[in-house]
């Protein structure tokens, strides 16, 4: 039965839609396109190499998938190369101190990923290898539904339905799914499952990702060169950019706080390790106040020591869920000052810091 589409308020049939077309035809068209247009990515074994018998390294696939969560390909490429050069195998990463992994991760955001990255490496090294099924992969630290499916499909060619942001967009348009996000996620996965091939599962997942990244783009999709546009309900309707349907964005709240840059006579600055739980967990940072929605705390109650503090400016940083403004204060360490056990003196240029702390330190040296 042909699916129905709506054009100018009237229902019309799209006999070539993904729902009515044989799923194998949709998968074949996309895989044929991928064989000629696959992106060349440092963590990928492309279709030509696969035909020659090369297979993906599960460690490389896992590392890239963790790094790519909420981070662009352009940002990840150089950082991925640094990680792989420093820790070529999962055993190498497992044997590294957590602080080294956290430091190398600085600037990539979502720092719980770095802590789980190390925990997972330790767990895999202990068991001897990565498991090759979704269910087993999900027992490892930091591996949820998406990452388990991606590693199972791409590294082991298991039939696992992988759904990232790009694939969500492709499937939502292909079937004109009008349920608003994130409520549409179960339907999107079910629809993706209907067209997912039994063979070349990893190639199909990467083909869908490439299609979403380069052709089925969020804005101005390139439908005329899309290999599956004939089966796309949104294209038939002419309202591709309406999918996936997203609710109106709520404005991000604003939070305020202060940080304190204490220096010694050796050109070092006082940093402390943030608590493992919470934002920027486990990362180095300047001592400071809590980040609150109220007025800034001018009492300096949380300054590392009583000193002649001077305000040198403020930094603004945008996190996923809020805007942050930090007042930055500087002072020289008074005689007799002793740091606490979770604090350390480090030269600012040597400190591996998250982006917001890099901003704060930079204005102390302007």
Describe this structure in words.
Mean pLDDT is 90; it is low at 1-13. The longest helix has 16 residues, at 112-127. The strands form three sheets. Strands 3-7-6 form a three-stranded mixed beta sheet, with helices on one face. The N and C termini lie far apart (68 Å). 38% of the residues lie in helices and 14% in strands. It has two domains: 3-242, Endonuclease III, domain 1 (Orthogonal Bundle); 254-364, Nucleoside Triphosphate Pyrophosphohydrolase, CATH 3.90.79.10. It has helices at residues 23-37, 47-51, 58-68, 73-86, 90-94, 98-105, 112-127, 134-137, 145-156, 165-174, 185-195, 201-214, 233-237, 355-364; strands spanning 3-7, 10-14, 254-263, 269-273, 284-285, 310-318, 323-332, 343-346. With 366 residues, the protein is of the alpha+beta class.
Q: Tell me what the CATH architecture of the largest domain is.
A: Orthogonal Bundle
Order of helices and strands: EEHHHHHHHHHHHHHEEEEEEH
CATH class of the largest domain: Mainly Alpha
Number of strands: 8
Spatial strand sequence of the major β-sheet: 3-7-6
Main sheet, how many strands, which sense, barrel? 3 strands, mixed
Give the count of structural domains.
2
Please report which band the strand proportion falls in: under 5%, 5-15%, 15-25%, 25-35%, 35-45% or over 45%. Answer: 5-15%
């Amino acid at each position: 039965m042909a699916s129905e589409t709506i054009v100018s308020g009237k229902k019309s049939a799209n006999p070539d839609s993904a729902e009515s077309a044989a799923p194998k035809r949709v998968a074949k068209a996309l895989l044929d396109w991928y064989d000629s247009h696959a992106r060349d990515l440092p963590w990928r074994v492309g279709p030509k190499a696969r035909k020659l018998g090369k297979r993906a390294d599960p460690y490389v696939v896992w590392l890239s998938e963790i790094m790519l969560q909420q981070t662009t390909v352009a940002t990840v490429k150089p950082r991925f190369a640094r990680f792989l050069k420093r820790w070529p195998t999962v055993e190498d990463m497992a044997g590294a101190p957590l602080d080294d992994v956290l430091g190398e991760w600085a600037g990539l955001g979502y720092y719980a990923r770095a802590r789980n990255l190390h925990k997972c490496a330790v767990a895999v090294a202990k068991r001897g290898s990565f498991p090759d099924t979704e269910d087993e992969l999900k027992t490892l630290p930091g591996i949820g539904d998406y990452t388990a499916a991606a590693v199972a499909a791409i590294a082991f060619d298991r039939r696992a339905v992988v759904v990232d942001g790009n694939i969500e967009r492709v499937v939502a348009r292909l079937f004109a799914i009008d349920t608003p996000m994130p409520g549409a996620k179960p339907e999107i996965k079910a629809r993706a499952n209907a067209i997912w091939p039994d063979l070349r599962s990893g190639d199909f997942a990467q083909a869908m990702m490439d299609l979403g990244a380069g052709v089925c783009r969020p804005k101005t999709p390139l439908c005329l060169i899309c290999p599956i546009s004939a089966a796309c309900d949104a294209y038939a309707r002419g309202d591709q950019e309406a999918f996936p349907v997203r609710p109106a964005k709520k404005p991000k709240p604003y939070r305020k706080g202060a940080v304190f840059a204490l220096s010694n006579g050796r050109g070092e600055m006082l940093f402390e390790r943030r608590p493992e739980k919470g934002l920027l967990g486990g990362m180095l940072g300047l001592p400071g106040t809590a980040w609150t929605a109220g007025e800034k705390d001018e009492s300096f109650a949380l300054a590392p020591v009583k000193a002649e503090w001077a305000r040198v400016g403020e930094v603004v940083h945008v996190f996923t869920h809020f805007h942050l403004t930090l007042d930055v204060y500087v002072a020289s360490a008074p005689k007799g000052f002793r740091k606490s056990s979770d604090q350390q003196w480090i030269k600012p240029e040597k400190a591996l810091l998250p982006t917001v702390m890099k901003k704060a330190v930079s204005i102390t040296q302007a």
